[in-house]
Amino acid sequence: MTDDADLPETYFAGQIVQYRPRRPRIADLNVSQRRAENVAGIVPPSKRNGQLPTTEMHLMADFSIPPGKPSNDSEYILCSISIDTDGLIRMEPDFNAMKRPYLIQTGQTSGEMYEYFIEHASDPMARIDMERESQLFRALYQRHQEYNAFLVGTQFKMPPKNAHWISLFGEIIDGEGFEYDDLFVHFLLDVPSGCKAKWDLGKEPSHLSTQISMKQSDNRWHFGCPFAWLLESEPVPSDALSRPQLLIEVVSVDSWNRYRIEGYGYANIPESAGNETTIVHTWRPVGDGIISQLRRFFIGGCPELDDISYVSVPSDFQGKELSRYGFRTTPSGKIRLRLNTVTQMRAKSSTDGRAFASKARHGPSETQYYGMDKGVEDVLQAFKRARRRLLEARGILAVD
Predict the structure, then answer these.
(1) CB burial class (10 A; 0-12, 13-18, 19+) of residue 338?
(2) What are phi and psi of 181, to 5 degrees?
(3) How far apart are CA 367 and CA 103, in angstroms?
(4) Average pLDDT in the 222-235 region?
(5) Angstrom distances, CA of residue 97 to CA of 59, 101, 102
(6) One-character DSSP codes across 53-112
(7) What pLDDT digit, counting tens, does each position of 257-308 carry?
(8) Is the pLDDT score of 199 beyond 80?
(9) What is the rounded distance in angstroms from the CA atom of residue 373 to the CA atom of residue 375?
(10) DSSP of 257-280
(11) Quick one: CA dihedral 287, 289, 295, 298, positive or negative?
């Protein structure tokens, strides 16, 4: 710094002068300027683009070789620091003390290479200041948590104890590999005993169906039919419940209103919460001899199931083995589904809640949907029994 009035302005100072002007204070403006300032300050240009106003500072270096004149090619930004109206400070690049240095290669004929470090040289924070800062952060987090709880409210419905709620959102995407054109899909949800399903649009229909789709240039039938159910399980033992299944029936219809069964299939509801795309391989019954094939081709109609739950194991089946001996079938096309499941349960303790959250993220291997909390409780009880036996054994050995 100097107070010499005759000192000529350098090229570097002339380039950096654009960062020196500051916005004048409102009190220093006259009435007309205040009105213009208020009008222009209603919606700042930076906020129109979703960005906050920032103040920036650049640390620059001039690598020109005397007596050469400075130019844009010899000036480089070493570090940029910005702060916005929310108090967020950004620095680029970061501190690199005790790390690899930053490199700058100049554009001069000699091509010098410079290395430099950026070190945090401020005095370390005192212990009392660190404790005060941690208290402020805790108060801030507590206030944010209370604000989130206020947004959620107290009217959030919770399932009863030992019960599970599963929200199923799905879509029948498309199909391929079927024999005839102009397809539509009948589907319904097979709910096991001890569980009930609620339809989002009022009274639950007996079955649902998609629109009639024609075969496209990619040899697929596109449906794009969404559906949603809410499954509520009763608080019963987990071994008394089985997994819900989505039963599918693919039907074709032509301009002569000839209906033909193109395939049956089913999809198990995923055990873990999340998004899943699954392929359902279908099959259809066939009759005996050529007469059945001629009937299917000329007048439509073919063998079909009286009970669509026979596609899988019926929910009311009580035996150990389900025999389909003598039932003639042939493979058919494929249906692609997208299933999104959201699970909700009441944790009996914070440990159970964390265990269930971990299972929901990674997905259980063989644990059933409705027995997750019971499985956690069984594991904890087994661990307590093993630990008790170990302590007793140690006590006996110590006495001996």
Answers:
(1) middle
(2) -95, 180
(3) 56
(4) 84
(5) 17, 8, 10
(6) -EEEEEEEEE-PPTTSPP-GGGEEEEEEEEEETT--EEEES---TTSPPEEEE--SSS--
(7) 899 999 999 998 887 788 999 999 999 998 878 888 888 888 887 888 888 8
(8) no
(9) 5
(10) --EEEEEEEEEEPPSSSEEEEEEE
(11) positive
Tokens of 332: 């058919």
State the pLDDT at residue 360.
45
Q: How confident is the model at residue 197 (pLDDT cuts 50, 70, 90)?
A: confident
The structure tokens listed for 378 are 């069984």
> Which residue matches tokens 């392929």?
279
Cβ-based neighbours of 179, under 8 Å, separated by 6 or more: 252, 260, 262, 332, 333
- What b/e readout covers 289-308, taking b as 16+ CB neighbours within 10 angstroms? eeebeeebeeebebbeeeeb
Would you say how long the chain is, in residues?
400
Position 135: which residue type? Q
User: Kind of pairing, strands 329-345 and 164-176?
Assistant: antiparallel
Helices 350-362, 372-399: crossing angle, 10 deg rounding: 120
Return d(Cα 208, Cα 229) in angstroms, integer: 12
DSSP string, 289-339: HHHHHHHHHHT------SSGGGGS--TT--SS----TT--EEEEEEEEEEE
CA distance 268 to 339: 10
Terminal Cα-to-Cα distance of the chain (whole angstroms): 88
Cα 185 to Cα 280: distance, rounded to the nearest angstrom: 12
- Distance (Å, whole) CA 272 – CA 195: 17
Q: Which helix (H) or strand (E) holds 174?
A: strand 164-176
Q: How many CB atoms lie within 10 A of CB 356?
A: 21
> Is 369 in contact with 343 (CB distance < 8 Å)?
yes
C-alpha span between 132 and 137 (Å, rounded): 9
Q: How far is CA 310 from the centre of its chain?
A: 36
CA distance 220 to 334: 10
Give tens-digit pLDDT for 86-134.
Answer: 778 888 888 887 788 888 887 666 677 888 888 888 888 888 888 888 8
pLDDT digits (tens, 9 = 90+) for 378-391: 666 777 777 777 77
Spatial distance between the Cα atoms of 374 and 161, rounded to a whole number of angstroms: 12
